[in-house]
Amino acid sequence: MKVLNYGSLNLDLVYHMEHFIRPGETFGATRLDKFPGGKGLNQSIALARAGARVYHAGNVGPDGEVLVETLRNAGVDTNLIRRVEEVTGHAVIQVDSRGDNSIILYAGANAQVTSDQIDRVLEEFARGDYLILQNEINLVGEIMDKAFDKGMIIVLNPSPMNEEIRKLPLEKVSIFLLNEIEGEELTGKREPDNILDELLARYPRARVVLTLGGKGSVYGDGEERIQQNIYKVEAVDTTAAGDTFTGYFISTLIRTGSCREALDMAARASALAVSRQGAAPSIPALEEVRAAAGGIQEM
Ligand code: RIB
C-alpha cells in the first residue's frame, strides 16, 4: 500500500526572539536559522522516518530544489513534485525564549496546484492507498473528491485552520488529526470529549485524533476512546511537533494496525522534535524514537 502526501513545501526563516514582536515594535533577533519546512514536507519526512513508503506531491519554484533534495534524502519519492515559475512557499517564524512559535506564511508555489496536476498525480494511486492532506495548498477539496472516488483513504490535518476548511467535503475524511484549537473552531465545542463527540456525530465513519498540548492526546472512533500522555522534555522549539505526531501516528497505524501503539509512538516522536531546533531537521528517526523510550519521562 502506498502513501501519498499532497502538501506544502516551505523554506523556513526562523528568528530567535526574546519575545514575539508587538505591533509598532522594532526588536532584534538573537539568531537566524534557515530550515526546510512546510507542514506537507515535515509530515512526509515524519512518515518516511517512521517507516512508510511515501510519495510527496506539490510544487516548488526555482529556489526550492533544496526542499526536494531534503525529501529525497529522507527516503521520500519526489517524482510527483512539479517545478513552477512562482517563488517557493516560505514561512517567517519567530521562536521565543520558551520555545513557542508564531508563523507568517507565504504560499507561493504551494498555491499553484492545478486540476491537470491532480489528475496526473492520482493516476499513480489506487483503492486502499492513503492520502495525507493539510491546509497549505490550493484545491484541497478537489483532491479529496477525486481521491475519494478512487477509494483512497483520506487523512486530514486541518491546519492551519481557516474558512477554507469548512468548505471541504469533510464527510469523505477517514482520519482527522487536529489540535484542540482547531477542534474548537471546527465544532464550536470546548472540552476535548465534547469536540470528539461532535466530530464523530457529524462524521460517524471517521476516526479522530485530538492533540491537547501538555495534556497529551486522545483518540476516538465509533467504539472506543484512548487517552495518551505526553513524554516530558525540555522545550527548545515546538515547530513541526504536530507534523511529527501526524507522520508517526499514520505510519505506525499502517504498520501495526494499533491506534494505541500509534498514539504512543507519535507522542514519543513529537517529544523528541520539541527538544530540537527547526522543523524538518528536528524529526527523529525510528531508531531514535525506540532508543529514547527509557530516556523521555512520561507525565
Ligand atoms: O508546522 C510547522 C510548519 O508550518 C513550518 O515548517 C512552516 O513552514 C509552516 O508551514
Largest β sheet strand count, sense and barrel closure: 9 strands, mixed
Low-confidence stretches: none
First-residue to last-residue Cα separation: 35 Å
Q: Classify the helix fraction into a percent range.
A: 25-40%
Give the helices and strands as they follow along the chain. Answer: EEEHEHEEEHEHEHEHHEEEEHHHE
Shape: globular
Q: In what range is the share of β-strand residues?
A: 25-35%
**What is the multimeric organization of the chains shown?**
single chain
Helical stretch tally = 10
Structural class designation? alpha/beta
Strand order of the largest sheet: 5-4-1-8-9-10-11-12-13
The radius of gyration over CA amounts to 18 Å
How many beta-strand segments? 15
Question: Hetero groups bound?
Answer: alpha-D-ribofuranose
Mean pLDDT: 96
Describe, in plain words, how this protein is organized in 3D.
This protein is of the alpha/beta class and 299 residues long. The chain contains 10 helices and 15 strands. The longest helix is centred in the last third of the chain and has 16 residues, at 241-256. The protein binds alpha-D-ribofuranose. Alpha-D-ribofuranose binds next to strand 2, helix 1, strand 7 and helix 8.
What's the SSE blueprint?
Elements lengths: L2 E4 L3 E7 L14 E7 L1 H11 L4 E7 L4 H9 L3 E7 L5 E7 L5 E6 L8 H8 L7 E4 L6 H11 L2 E4 L6 H4 L8 E5 H8 L4 H11 L4 E5 L5 E4 L4 E4 L2 E2 L8 H16 L2 H16 L11 H6 L5 E2 L1
Parallel strand pairs: 1-4, 1-8, 2-6, 4-5, 8-9, 9-10, 10-11
Antiparallel strand pairs: 2-3, 6-7, 11-12, 12-13, 14-15
The chain binds alpha-D-ribofuranose.
